[in-house]
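[SOLVED] Need 3D model of a two-part complex

Original post:
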Amino acid sequence: MKKKIKIKINGKLKIIDDKTKLSVFLENHKVPLSKVAIELNRKIVDKKKLMQIFLKTNDKLEIVHFIGGG
Amino acid sequence: MQDKLIIAKTKFNSRLIVGTGKYRNMLECAKAIKISGAEIVTVAVRRVNISDKKKPLLMDFIDPKKITYLPNTAGCFNSHEALRTLRLAREIGGWKLVKLEVLGDKKNLFPEMIETLNSTEVLTKEGFKVMVYCNDDPLMAKRLENVGAAAIMPLAAPIGSGLGILNKVNIKIIRNQTKLPLIIDAGLGQASDATIAMELGCDGVLVNTAIAKAKKPFEMAKAFKNAVIAGRQSFLSGRIEKKLMGIPSSPNKGII
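Solution:
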């Protein structure tokens, strides 16, 4: 069985497989990459480098997009 | 002669900027924007709902290729949060034109001007074109200009209050001291408030609640569109002087 890790995604705890690629995680969650920005541990992630990033335990991932606002 | 709104060297035909918040749904929002004729809309940056993949996205209803998105830092109460928000906004799609709004009080929603000033300076140095929500203080407006603001956006009244322009004198003073785009932001309640702003010489107005929460948002969107045009035409036409006594419109000569 694969080792599991804990990460926080948009403030919520999530258990995922260890060594999950960020690109795979986003794809699994059907995140529309052209319409979002991604921050990993408070650093903005270059969307061209998603394939090179592996999620680690206690990572804090933020995915944001535009919504209606004044 | 073409009379365009120019912000950070980009030209716009409409002088009405509208917010995209508080509508009942995105369809209503998109239709109101279309009717208003606005070419710039403010948008907020928020977390994606990762568990609800079918939730509609703003970009599916309002095409950012046709309408200029103006990412806003509404809800930020310090410089750190505002900078983080706008850096993320830029990452979504290369937006450099942004609206900075750093609030200082959760009840009156007045801007925290020291944090606003510092953030304007930092963002400008990072290459952002910063349209700055501020109070109607001419001295602070001047300081924002000095640190590189792309537009000065004083409030008419507290956000969402619908009180209209409370301090016309200050707005006029700010108008006379700056060549930057001056856009009234926040607090307008009805279309005539927009006309007054434009007659004071403002370059544009930003409206959200007054349209979104009107009983008939589409009709109000149209009213604001017309009000901004009327106010601008009135300003450019040069109003008559105010006089204390009456002056007859018909000649006295030849009265029977």
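Edit: Chain A has one domain: 4-64.
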